[in-house]
Amino acid sequence: MTRFHLPEDQIPTAWYNVTPDLPEPLQPPLHPATREPVGPDDLAPLFPGALIAQEVAAERWIDIPGPVLDVLRLWRPTPLVRARALEEALGTPARIYYKDESGSPAGSHKPNTAVPQAYYNAAEGVRRLTTETGAGQWGTALSFACTRFGLDCKVYMVRASYDQKPYRRVIMETWGSEVVASPIDDPGHPGSLGLAISDAVRDAAGRDDTHYALGSVLNHVLLHQTIIGLEAKAQLELAGESDGPDVVLGCCGGGSNLGGIALPWVTDSSVRLVAAEPASCPTLTAGRFEYDFGDTAGMTPLLPMYTLGHDFVPPAIHAGGLRYHGDAPIISALVHAGRMEAVAYPQGKTFEAAVQFANTEGKLPAPEAGHVIRAVIDEALAAKELGEERVLLFNFCGHGFLDLAAYDDYLHGRLVDA
Amino acid sequence: MTRFHLPEDQIPTAWYNVTPDLPEPLQPPLHPATREPVGPDDLAPLFPGALIAQEVAAERWIDIPGPVLDVLRLWRPTPLVRARALEEALGTPARIYYKDESGSPAGSHKPNTAVPQAYYNAAEGVRRLTTETGAGQWGTALSFACTRFGLDCKVYMVRASYDQKPYRRVIMETWGSEVVASPIDDPGHPGSLGLAISDAVRDAAGRDDTHYALGSVLNHVLLHQTIIGLEAKAQLELAGESDGPDVVLGCCGGGSNLGGIALPWVTDSSVRLVAAEPASCPTLTAGRFEYDFGDTAGMTPLLPMYTLGHDFVPPAIHAGGLRYHGDAPIISALVHAGRMEAVAYPQGKTFEAAVQFANTEGKLPAPEAGHVIRAVIDEALAAKELGEERVLLFNFCGHGFLDLAAYDDYLHGRLVDA
Fold first, then answer.
1. Which of A45, A358, B30, B267 is buried most deeply by CB count within 10 Å?
2. What angle do CA B281, B285, B286 make, to 5 degrees?
3. Looking at the whole model, is its pTM more than 0.90?
4. How far apart are CA A241 and CA A133, in angstroms?
């Protein structure tokens, strides 16, 4: 067997909240002006009450609302796939499984949180959402989700992506969103996620009918993504892997897809957890663990996380997404406590891995996914070297059909490593 | 239930050959010079013996070789999906099912025949394949298949697509193919499928190590695509639709995806079969049923089919694929005998349908698929008008992630109807 389908009636009906199970308690976010812990009232201009409650929830399981499940079931449960062709090409005794999140409307894992975020906002009477997008995955996902719940959506897109990825703009427009290049006040600036967040937050804070939605980093975002790992747990049983995985891996930008696949294994100390990040934006491997702003302008609360500094802008040559200066506080806490490992790769090595995956498994990875595939291949080759059976599980977070300009650069020698 | 997965061990292990079950016998292809029926020797410079045998096979079932199944299982069986969100939006009593072929490596149904074609060629010692591609779906599929069987591949790409769809070129190059714009001898010409076929056939005919591969039209191509309809039959049982569909629909360019979904129902006279084609290339609805060349230069055998003339070039404004001047002899015979209906749509109506599908079902259709979705929506609205339950089955032949320039034109009013 190659692909393992979880029956539709076994879709998880609750998300897993890891915060009570973290090895170190999470430090609270701080108000940007007072540097005191933020309360629900501070967040109310940007987020609906349900998401604010999830952000600080202490219970381990949070029910998924029925209308959210109804939309998620358009593509979930997603398949768990045994990468037999890749295993054969590597000659490894490792058994490699991946969760295929590329079949969602947006082609990535991002709709897993876009859908509940749109739902909770609509349920509390919000009419319009703003957000930022870098590579475009998140804006695409939120655009789709807003369509399903009748919300207007405005996307501030990092200008470098806006210019280089017109197809990303078009797909967001197809789902009815308004898309503008960010920073809006400096047409000569290539932009960054931090700047785009500032634009989107400023817009939402200035209008009563509008909230803001974030695609990664925050606790409620990682919470929603745990449906990936929860499904994978049940599917590994179907695959006969009742001992579970030895290593769980994900690429890491803000941390949401990594959290989604990895958090359900945090309490199982026999499972190694691995974050793969780009060498040109090496937050976990070279950043500092400290309070920093989520955005560049310093409008968001201060978050306890690994950070390269909120004014960090990754090199323009970097094609592989994962460009955020910080990381999710939950992911940062796991790395800080030694529960999760982190590795960084130059982009040439990640595209090499992505092409090997496309040539064997037949799926074209998003450049972000190339990072985790690099890590998986290295783990599988290490297992071969040691003659060890090893069960590897990773999240195939998205396809690369909208990222072919980066492949073009790679294939024709125009990619350089920072 | 929304999605119906056929267990992997129930993947069809034989293709269905419709030719003995056609209402009128197929007329043979004729030699372009002598106008006598072509024999196997005439085709040997272009095709391997196994495919030539399949082209004229009389038995109903032909085994799928194990190495072909091993590759098809990377993504097959594909899901059968109940389009509940679309049904709700239309308020129709019709039950709409679609076979989702968009999850293949190339994002379309085309690899279903690319894989066996590459296999049979490799098995007979061929080292290199040439082909043409228009919208890019077929060239992408063959590039992937050649990688799996160690063949070199050269793709002659219709120049208009080559210029407008650089991402299509890149994905073929990612899978190792050489891609050139066609016609190769006239850089000012926008090209056509017929011209690109001429280029590819000329290349293959001139080299001993090289064969040619065609992505549609021929009997063996439709044969390989029947795996779609065979899976769908089993999946409709899983869905509780043991009476089968009332209508089976597919879009039609050369006829391979339509044949794939529809041929297994030819002998069931209670099932209506419907072809949806573009009004700007209306082969079945406005063409003549006669012998014509498959290519523009007149190098291929003459085929008995509906045709707009082998020198037909569709208007450059047409964005929706399906630009071939002729149609598969099998499809043509079914239409000619009255067993299959055909409808033609202007492209604006097909993009309107595609956007409605994206907004409800969350999948972005290829422009080709927009044609069949238009037909399905019209059937579902007719069922609503009549207050009739009606089971509709169609083939979602591919996603539109590589066709967003056409959506951009549609959304911004730049598409006109011929």
1. A358
2. 70
3. yes
4. 37
* AA identity, residue B368: E
Considering only CB atoms, A401 lies closest to which of B85, B144, B401, namely B401
> Do residues A212 and A224 share a domain?
no
Q: Residue B13, class by beta-carbon neighbours within 10 Å (0-12 exposed, 13-18 middle, 19+ buried)?
A: middle
Q: Could you list the residue range(s) of the whole structural domain that residue A197 is in?
A: 14-36+45-67+110-218
Instruction: For helices B219-238 and B111-123, give the axis angle rounded to 10 degrees.
Output: 130
Mutate to test the interface with A, among B5, B68, B74, B76 (most CBs of A within 10 A): B74
CB proximity A162 to B under 8 Å: no
B97 φ, ψ to 5°?
Answer: -120, 145
Q: How far is CA A393 from CA A83, A99, A219, A262, in A?
A: 10, 8, 23, 9
Q: What is the b/e burial string over B72-82, where b = at least 16 CB atoms within 10 angstroms of the residue's CB? A: bbbbbbbbbbb
B40 in reach of chain A (CB within 8 A) = no
Tell me the CA end-to-end span of chain A in Å, nearest whole number.
41
Over chain A (418 residues), the average pLDDT of each successive run of 10 is 93 98 95 93 94 97 98 97 98 98 96 98 98 92 97 96 89 97 94 90 95 96 98 98 97 96 98 96 96 90 96 75 90 98 96 97 96 98 97 97 92 82
Helix count and strand count (H, E) for chain A:
16, 15
Ranges assigned E (strand) in B191-316: 210-212, 247-251, 272-278, 288-293, 302-307
> How many structural domains is chain A composed of?
2
Specify whether B214 is located in the same domain as B229.
no
Using DSSP, state whether A251 is helix, strand or coil.
strand
Query: Does residue B4 lie within any of the structural domains?
Result: no
ipTM strictly over 0.90?
A: yes
CATH of the domain at B268: 3.40.50.1100
Distances (CA, A) of B34 to A287, B212, B290, B300: 76, 22, 17, 12
Any domain includes A2: no
Structure token pair of residue B335: 């239409």
Answer yes or no: is B5 within a domain. no
Task: Check if B240 contacts A (Cβ < 8 Å).
Answer: no
Q: Is residue B345 a contact partner of residue B381, using CB atoms and an 8 Å limit?
A: no
Q: Which residue of A has its CA nearest to B173?
A: A411
Distance CA B380, CA A279 (A): 53
Same-domain check for residues A279 and A311: yes
Residues A28, A204: Cα–Cα separation, whole Å: 23
Q: Are residues A270 and A351 in the same domain?
A: yes
Q: Which helix (DSSP H) or strand (DSSP E) does residue A289 occupy?
A: strand A288-293
A5 within domain boundaries: no
Strand partners, A92: none
Q: Are residues A238 and A315 in the same domain?
A: yes
Domain boundary among B218, B248, B274: B218
Strand order in the sheet with B210-212: B178-182, B152-158, B128-133, B210-212
